[in-house]
Write a structure and sequence with these properties.
The protein is mainly α and 186 residues long. The chain is 74% helix and 0% strand.
Length: 186
Amino acid sequence: MDDASIIKLLWERDEQAVEELKNSYETLCFYVAGNILSQKEDREECVNSAYMDVWSSIPPKRPDNLKNYLCKLVKNCALDRQRYNTAAKRNKEFSVSLDELSECVSDGKSLEDRLSDEQLGKIISSFLRAQPEKYRKVFVRRYWYSESIEDIAAYFDMNANTVATYLFRIRKKLKAYLQKEGYIDE
């Protein structure tokens, strides 16, 4: 079933919509949650919570891209669960990917103080559209799906050092882009 049909079912409050969401996106949702959370129960809770959030938010919302909307809900839930589970401790791999990205978007002030999530998303999307496809895909796998450098290297049949170099270069370009656009100080 396509996304428009699922959204139509959600607007009609037909419970079949949740089953269709599961059929279409369950594997992807568990993949997104699994890159952040190690416990099976936590992943299941986040995915089910995202389904409930979709059910609760549509209507009144009508997302343009149901897949991205659902993935964002899963990721946000997984991040919340990760923070809760680890309070002082962190998932090393996930923390490293966030630390890498913070180098190019942080200037000492909270990014949330400067931009809304939506604004930042549009800025980064605009930047990524101008990048070569492979750089863009490596960036998304690392910072959206939270994949390890080794997993990305295996997926693209590349050396891990090459992936790390791609990530370093694109972060450097992103920082320059954000400075040029006036979103961070030089």
